[in-house]
User: Fold these one by one.
Assistant:
Number 1:
Amino acid sequence: MAISRREFFINSAKLATTSALIATGIVSYSKYAYSIPASAIRPPGALAEKDFISACIRCGLCVNDCPFPTLSLATEKDRVAIGTPFFTARTAGCEMCDDIPCVKACPTGALDKSLTDINKAKMGLARIVDTKGCIAYQGLRCEVCFNICPLQGKAITVEMRHNDRSGKHALFVPVVHYDHCTGCGKCEEACIMEEAVIKVLPMQLAMGKRQDHYKLGWEEKQKAGRSLVSPDIEHKYNLPEGKQYDLQGKGLTDIKVESSLDNALDSLNSFNPLFDIKRK
Amino acid sequence: MKKINICQVVGNDAKKSKGRLGANKYLILRRLSQLGILFLFLLGPWFDVWIVKGNLTSSLTLDTLPLSDPFVLLQSFFAGHSLATDALIGALIVLIFYLIVGGRVFCSWVCPMNIVTDAANYFRCKLGIKATSGGVSNKTRYWILAVSMLGAWLTGSIAWELVNPVSILHRGIIFGMSFGWGLIVLIFLFDLFVVKNGWCSRLCPMGAFYSLLGRVSLLKVNAKERDKCTDCLECYAVCPESQVINPALKGNNSSVIFDKNCTNCGRCVDICEPKVFSYSSRFKKN
């Protein structure tokens, strides 16, 4: 069945047009499909979202090996790229298994096998998103998030603060620490408020980013081992004659002239409690 | 005279000579294979018996045998992900397997969509709906194959897997699905009312991908006894890729069906009363 050159070109053009239409459809659909809601947290070791959706082949091996009902594959109604694994912290947070079976199960490296210590995972970052809603911030004792935290005392600590409302009580407020929080979401799961006031946010949402031109002098100095801008000059206070000031030591003192009179004054001053505070 | 659709009488002669079972041998075996594989995957989530984990895109059998779908991995590669060894080994095993048993054996013996589209075909025959191509060329799938790779490259993601009914259905049955069912029903209706074999034989890029392996794969259907052919045309009626039969059955060269799109489903072997067809290696003479 021979076809003319004309027919061949027309047929090819038809197919190419159809394909282009389908391609346009898929590309624009994928843009929508890959917007992930903030409540969906990826398993431990997941690559950055952009890389994750090219690496994850949606096989569900991580879900099968998760010993808890935490991970699941997204279905069409989850607004997460269909077939990819995620968990919702409020429903069930990650239990942070020591052997990280989900990462071991991943055949493609979408969950990075270089993560061997679950305490170093960065699934997200817990933030107290509503200090007004948090009863600890209102002066009630709670600390549930602190108590459930797998890295208690590191990822979440309780800080004592002054209760400005009553003027005489203390607040015991939970504080999340960037360096240790793995984003497991147990705190969000456990939060006793009707709507959690502590929430795990995906890293890209939780983290800001400083422009590169902001250099922290003290960090740069430490890296370089010396001041980078100008040589360090010992700081001098503009003090009246005969006085000296030691910030971390004795405070404001007279320039010592060894005499029995000064010693006597010193010992006298040491009875003064205000003087004592200044010295510490 | 009442006009009858050939599909409604297909296999009647074969049934008489081979018996009901004999005339459906490979069909029954295929269904057992398709459902058996699905069942193995379901043993884990349903009965907590973990022989096979994962799904068709990647699985782990008895905690040792990794299998991965090379079609999906290729998308992942085009999306910009450097492939990990676990998945590559799995894909290699799958590739070697299909290079032996026939590329599109995936389509007819494994793919769960085949049950859906075969059902559409069954009802199309029962309802006497005339077969049409709907103007959809059976080359379209190769364009869609190209599109799926292009889509992966353009979006930096495995874009085709957002709409791939094969993985949506298989994953959905094992891991749960919501309105993904809609897509499956849509394809069923498309195959039933619009285009005969529309999905599997014209559009599906997965079939197109596996057909590329079929160019060199070992196991083939052979019209070995073509001299006995009675010209009843039943094989053309049952074959989902009927264009593959002619060169072997009526040609002067080899009687092996070399066409890359033969799915090795064995339906022609089943329904042929004079037993023209049988499986053979591609190197078999005559």
Number 2:
Amino acid sequence: MMADPTVLEKIERDVAATQARILDYKMVTFTLAGKDYGIDIMSVKEIAKFANFTYVPNTAPFVRGVYNLRGDIISIIDLRLMFNLPVPQKTADTAENGLILRTESNVVGVIVDSIDKVVSISSEAIQPPHPIFGDINIKYISGVVEHDDRLYIILDADRVFVKGAEKADPSRVPAEIVDPRANDRVFQPEQVHESYRVGDFIEQELFTLKGFTVSPVNRLWFLNRLQEWKTKYEGAQITDAEAAQEFLTTFTSRNRERLWPAAYLDSIRSSMKEPDGTLINVWAPDCGAGYEAYSIACAMKRAFVHKQIKVWASDTDLMRISSAPNLVFTQSEIAEEYDEWIVQGKNGPTCSNDFKEMILFEYSDALHSTSLPKMHAVVMRDVLSFLDEQQQNRFFSLLEEMIRPEGILILGDNEQPVDSASWVEVDDTNLTIFRKRA
Amino acid sequence: MRVEYINPFVESAYNVLKEVLQCEVNRGELSLKSTSMPVLGVAAIVGLAGDVEGRVLFDMSRDTAIKVASAMLESMDMEAITELNDMGRATITELANMITGQAVTKLHNLNFKFDLTPPAIFTGDNMEVSNPDVEALIVPIELPMGKIEINVAVRERT
């Protein structure tokens, strides 16, 4: 859907006039041969590690092969080979760092030396490339910017990967793209790019007001929601917590602050193979009041009756986690599947002591968890999206290490793993479940 | 750290200090740390074993240690100290033992089985403590004599 050009123009003028210094440009930064590069975050679909891609004979030397991204075959291009930079020797089975880019024409994977972080800058700080830049042909560069004492060269994904990039329209001088005021009279294709900028401001506000980070974990949801939002409010910005909350209403997973309905319990049973051994470990970081921990414990106990279940649940909110062991339910939320573990406490229905012994509630910061055993399942619905991007990445490397092969990761209804290479999505309509590759 | 463990430690620190020092005791905001932390100057440590593994560390400045030890000694009609001598060190060690002992007794009543190791005391400048694998619960206690930080790092046996 194309947004209304007049609205975009208006926003663009407002932006230029009132928010001249705002950090309106986000780029994912990475290194190639020791130098820093950036790429517009809107053209980055995912950050990924590539392993075991299939070599395709008789292609350009910089095409390393093809890769199966959840069913879609994408080409993998080595940027270092493309730009004639040295490539460090790696053994065949080492995963390569890379980005999955969404360009005008298709989706491609690119291999880089290392991914650094996401940097927010003001688009006004971007300067046009200098003609003497050596390593990379100037036509691929949309500008340079200094941030934190480092000079980043910003690559233009569309020009690098558009077929016959050499023939790129000469009228598209680099400065034009990065200066939002350069073309405020006529609606040109670049303004589609500008419409994403509206999204950037909303991203910023969601983070400031709600601690919600738009990242590869939830970008698919975000882009859809942004379209809906722009249709509904004609490009309205988010200015207060109430609006941010409204924006996020479609994000929140179903059945979060209550016991899961019976169908969810069946989803767990059908998505997991019976593990070896007698003990099943489950981790529920940032479990808040404890509903997710009780629900998953019940699901596991029902699915694997003869196994011993141990759920490690934690939160950094001392008050909430302290009351989690004595959580009282409302009668209406208790499906009959839970009946055998529910007893009538003095404040209302609660879990029996036998059942509670399966769950260990800890006052703990999930990112400090290094001493936990290997997990068969991790449930963290709507948790990752409320961490910053750096923490999300740390979490994923932690999960990678912590979850057993074929173990499952349960994310929020609108979330997906940052690094899709190690996970396979399980087909399920109730929960969003990913199984770790064996 | 398991939520059931938190209160016994916080309560016994409060009760014991209030009882032996007979002064105002205020507890600060609880927090979690997993990085290395500077030690203020005097650190008494008690090891824990049993259902869990870990330790409790009582950390205070040298000045606070002298004042706290003096207050304890005076309450038993003994002479106050002016420097951290053997008597002072033994007194702080005993304080650590009393607090941890009472916490462990409370935990026993909740059916958690813990054992204590004999306490030890470290003094010196520019010291740091780190437990890269265990997250520590920090319980700051404000006294008229200064601040005592109780640093509880325990984890479940897996």
Number 3:
Amino acid sequence: MIHRNRATVVGILLVLCNPGAAVCQETSGSTGAAIAGAALGAYSGAMLGTMGSIVPCTQTYWGAKCVGWSAVFGGAIGLSSGAVIGANDSDEIKRAVETAGIGFGIGVVAGLVIKPIAQRVGWQDVAAVGLMGGAVGAAPKGAVIGLGVGTVVGFTLSRTVDGFNLPDAVGAAIAGAAVGALTDWVVSAINASGDPATQSGARITIPVSVRF
Amino acid sequence: MPSAMPAASLGRRHNRATLISALGVTLSGCMPGYRIVSEPPPDRTCAALATEPAGAIVDWYFAAGPGDGTEHERWCRTMGPVEVGAVPSADFAALGSGDSLAVAVWNTDAGAGYLQEFLREELGLDCSGDTLRLKPGYSHFVLLIQEALRRSNEIPDTPEKLWVTPPPVKEEERPGRRLGAAEVARECGLAYIYAAASRNGWQPRDGLREDKGNAIISTLPLSDFIVAELPFEAARRVVPMATVHGPNGDSLRVASVHLITTPPAWRTLKTGNSARLRQALGLVEALELIERERSGCLEAVQSTEFVVQCDSTYTTPTVIAGDLNTWSTRETALRHLMAYFPDSPPLLNEPTRGPFPTDHVLFRSGRGGVRILTRTYRRIPKAYYSDHNPIIVYFKFGS
């Protein structure tokens, strides 16, 4: 049973992390895909910027202003990356839309689970959790890797740096997921805009090896 | 192959995308405005809440920012009266010129905290005897309570479907009678003000309805009773205030504050998690308005030439303290409050609620006449069945 679970985890990680799985550059882009990519990227990036900055920013004097600017920054990255990806590879945008949909669904289910337990959680909060899930789902590889890195960094700092407490560690993990997902958008855009003839040799990948 | 698109098409595409992006950004990370007023806005009935005893004067300040009025109105219709008692028992000796004043702060977790034992062990007041007297070596005190309980059928019987009734707070088994804060104050001969913020469950417990809010109880006489609403964030919060006086008549205003914990996901995203900051700034605005009104400066504000003068006339030494629900001592709301209360003791970076430093005392000396004894500021290790540790600091009247 444990082996099967491990195998499942390994399988999921490999699918998420294998750079080859994302190499489907045979199709070209289109105006429609560029618009869809820009819209999806803007939404995902702005949401990731918001999510990732909430905890760190509320530890500063600027608070919501800092969150707002992070949302602008994330939205701009997502918008430009999404537009570039869509203009070059409409399949990649289709995949991003699909995974965003899956992320939205997972978020909504999580919201529905929380709703009867937590106080003051309404339908709009269920939708908000869904929207967060969708934003992460649009760039899942980077989000997973970023979450892992952020968690390790946050945990390590919380054990070694005085004044870096539990909220900071949680913030580091969430920020890691957001930064990872935004990086995923950028990497995908760079890959999509490269010359397909040279992609097999010059492609940027996020190197990950998982050993058990 | 990348598709070749005409420049005009690219331009339109970018315009649309920019619009979508801007829309997304405007929906996130924006703190809504806040406004505090002293005249009840239209359709607000909270100030008409009965006062116990009838005829006692309590000044209200109202949150009038976007959406605040509607929510406060819905919630305050389920509340019982504001309760006040200005004069403590004559058994307490008068405050001497060299005496210090303890200001203690405690979130009692809606009646879970064993208030009578806390008074006995930490503040030296045993209410079970025939005479009310502070034990030797203990100072006069002001206790600022958050999540104070009230059990009374003066709380209106309202239908559950109003959706403004939080579930009752769970309590551990503990010795002693389960009394409300004002009830304890009366039993112990203390001056007090209690203002409810929300119900504690919809159904009566042991035949009595319950609400919870903030209270101030004191061995010194209290005057100038005020209740200020905070901007509405997920749940209703009100701040009761009162003034105590030193032997030479110096005033110290005290305010018992409870900021919101964590608003739900939608609100958090939409406001960039600025809920506590908005409430903190609302409280500061309320305090400024109170000062302006009491110093007769309000009319002068209408004339530009007096604005500077009025802004600098914040005179009354003021303590605001309570459960600010901060995750750390670096939080935005706390940073802004520290700027406004420059004479505060260094923040206690010790956990008072789980691993979090949620509870704080902040001080502004104003025109002077009251000193904070910074080194006495500490966390009380015993929680007395509450989920919060109390904190305490001492003050002295006179320069």
